[in-house]
Amino acid sequence: MTSKHFGNIQMRGLNKLGDVIVPGEGSFPRFGQTEFSSEIDRMLDYMYEDDRSGLSLLMTIFAFTPSFLIKWVVLLSEKNAQFPDFIGAPLRMIQLGLKGIILTLYYSNLDDQNQYGEKIMKEINWSTTVAKLDSDQEVPVMRKETSSWTNPSSDAVTQIYDNARSAEKEIYKMTVKQRRNFITSLKKLILDEKEKIVDIIQKDTGKGRSDALFSEIFGVLDHLTFLENEAVNSLKDAKIKTPIALMGKKSKIFYEPLGTVLVVSPWNYPFYQAIVPITISFITGNSTIYKPSEFTPLKGLVEDLLYRAGFQDDWVQIVYGDGKTGSQLIDKRPDKIFFTGSVATGKKIMSQASEMLIPVELELGGKDPFIVFDDADIERAASGALWGALTNTGQSCTSVERIYVQENIYEKFKTKLLEKTKTIKQSVDKDGDSDMGGMTTDSQVGIVKLHIDDAKTKGANLLTGEGWNGKDNLIPPLVLDNISDDMKICTEETFGPILPLYKFVDEEHAINLANDSDFGLSASVWSADNKRALRVTRKLKTGNVSINNVMLTEGNPYLPFGGTKYSGIGRYKGVHGLHSFSNMKSVLIDSNSNKIEANWYPYTKRKYQLFSGMTEGLFGGGIKNFIKFLIYGLKLESYSDKVGKKGRV
Amino acid sequence: MHHRIYDVIIVGAGISGSIIAKELCESGLSVLLVEAGKNFNRTNYPKKEIDANSQLYWGGGIELNTNADIGILRPKVVGGGSVVNQALLDRFDDLALDSWKDKTKINWFSRKELDPWYDKALSELNVEEIPKEHRNGNASIFIKGFEANGFKSAPLKRAQKDCAYDKGSDCIECLSGCIRDSKQSMGITVLPKAFANGLELISEFEVTGIKETSDLVRVFGKDKDEDNRIFRGKKLVLAAGAIGNSKLLLNSNFSNNSIGKNFFTHPQFMSLGIYDEEIHAEKGPFQSMKSDDPNFRIKSFKLENVFGPPVAISMLLPGIASRHLNYMKQITHMACIEVAVRDQNPGQISTDSKGRLKIEKTLDERDQTTFDNGLSAIHDIFNSTGAKEIVDGNFKIGLHLMGGLSMGVNPANSVVNENFKLHGHKNIYAADSSVFPNAPGINPSLTIMALSKKAAQEIKGDVQ
Asked: Contact, A59 vs A17, CB < 8 A?
């Protein structure tokens, strides 16, 4: 007896009710005897929520009510016609509900489960049939179900770009302030519906509830607040200094839209990686085409939120599909590609884009070092390592994947880390009361297994998680040591909950180890000596460093984010990020005078002499040269104007 | 977001939606048909009553009016009513059409104007009269009783083909979809033609809102995985029936005060006569006769010889335990006649703050008198044919769900104009039973088909 909707108590109530209505008489079986109650979900699944919960409540009550009282209730409900409507109506509902569920189960000929269904039909002498069709007549075509979740046709891709190009014009017309209003409505909506959004994120990713709230929802709201506060200021026309040689003119930068930006996002933070780039692209005035990962499409969520926040359809278009769709979208030549994901895909995208010289910004993987000096607080550093390696089940581009510990505290640190690892609670929870969720894709589970097997074969010690079967998505924390640099786990991105421990001797050794990687996304340095920490920070070849903390540069939406080496190209977020989605248009403004400029034609010997003297004066330095500059400058100007108007003499 | 902008989106794949889809597809328009119910065919209709009720109707089988005395059966399946109905096809008579003309001030409500559309509708499917030799015991009681009381009856016309009665087919099985594709439901008549001409269908997609901007209509909803989806079209056809259309417009904050009003159901009431001999009302074509009595028509009711499968009949019977089982033992000894009231007192469909339905529908004194007259005619029939006991059903049912978007020329008291457009909206149409201005007292299917044919022509004209 299992039901998605009824527990054991409600089932008991249901069977008691059934025995009251159909107590078994003559050859009719008793309701409870038929065990038809186990089929109750065939009704409950399709009922309105209100009706279902009403029935559930009644069944709960019946479970604790003596049968004679249940009988009395049913018989009373039969007499509904004798009561005025305000009592009669609820009685009729009860009558219909109670008799409805029992009699439906009893007379539906549920003989798949047992013989009672047939038996009851026999008791009432019921037998109906329909003559089968003689031939194997074809079933009429009733299948051309359309789906927007799969790769769009090439016509649809063309349509998407047509839409995007016309949306560009609408968005361009709006001021940044006007665009900001939509950001504000979106933020409010996300705040109001955060729990619902977390549900959807969890459904697609299988991550822990707290991970979804802390990283995705909080991160998005933080970012949107940044846009609210800073976008208008960062994107207004910037006044730029004009050198004295260009006296009388003004210089400016206009931050203008690029046009249409293609955003392609990964599956690890599907909500954050949707909203953040989409809103940056939008507020800078671009029309956006967004392709989520086919593994975590969050079907319908983003467009629903955007629409309700007031975005017009084509300002941001969500396109569902896999890599093929991504490639088709690139072929239509967006004005920029913003990609977050793996190194392999990043290379493919850049290669395809290079044919059309489409600017690409790539936020790729990492193999982030975590460097602990012997003066660091071990308790704090171990906790930091644990979170940095395990948050989002290790599926972050900035996850800690190499833990370097100074040799004199190595054992102590290891003991602390192992101790803390044991306290990790793992499940795909519904209430936030769990540390770690599961892995999102099976292929990533495979990579983790590959790295672990490879490391073990080559002599690494696996200190925790021996019980993992190599398949389950709920991969436990995996602490390893005795790692050598011929192991995949040392050089390749694992993207899973691993904590590999390494020893280092001194500062220089730590820097060399940390920099000896194809990746350079972020790093963290742990030390009580601030000067040392800063010294090390400057020497790390990486895009981001947190000192005495981990993965925290992403925590500040004012800081730009991006990597070096295989970790990517370009920076986004912060003011820099806004500018990187803009066409920085340099503008120089002169007045509509009748003057002819000194550097224009005609070039004459005299002009050459004057220009030469002016150049010496301008760049020579000192007061004497400045006077020379002024004199030559004035002469040059008046000569140039004259010769420019009258021509070569 | 679906990136395509359809020429027309149709909400509801019932009789009206299917016919309009077929017409528009055939004229080369791009059409998206969305339907909350599932897309079954003869190989996978849910055959157990428990599953049929749950999966072919809204609310898991039945919805109730606020007074809980009318059980509303609202189909939720691709094909809509044509999958679960008894496929009775009758043209409206002058009495019905004159009252519509009178109420709506629309002049083309006449047989002369509508007959060509009825003809076009009938050309889509096969209609048969049940052959005399296959009439079952229930029909015999019906005919005998009518004769004994001087009432006039007539054989039914039914949309069916090759039912193979001589091979023992029992039509009652087809109430949850016909497994030999004899019943002329939309899935075997017009929809295949629509698919052949490019129709796109999404089943199990429940539309929750619509929004109209200057030149586009957006349709919001949730698919079977609870994922939100939005579709865009140049035109929208509401074909979700009286309740579906009203609910959708109300929940989408459409402002016309008449939305949801003028709701009629032809309240039906089944009465059972129990006989010593076996009747076997469940056998063969279980419904083959109807009343054809001018007096009944004037008195606003009609009688049909009907029956239902075991769960349905058990629900009509009073009592529990031995009293109940004693009745059920005699189920094959029962004859069954139903009175359908041409209801005058309009009900109202509304939604609460959470968007949930509220259906107010009561019989006023006139309707109650009609009902009493019908019931007493049934009793006369049973009594005159030797019934040993008469059991009146436990509750009424409503399955001709009409109105809510009633037609008329005056926007102050109607929702849809004579061109099938919502007053004040240039891109939204309706032509299903929701546009009925009152209860005609005649089965609505054929008229829904005719109106839909006519509406499709209007839409084609507007698009081109």
From this structure: yes
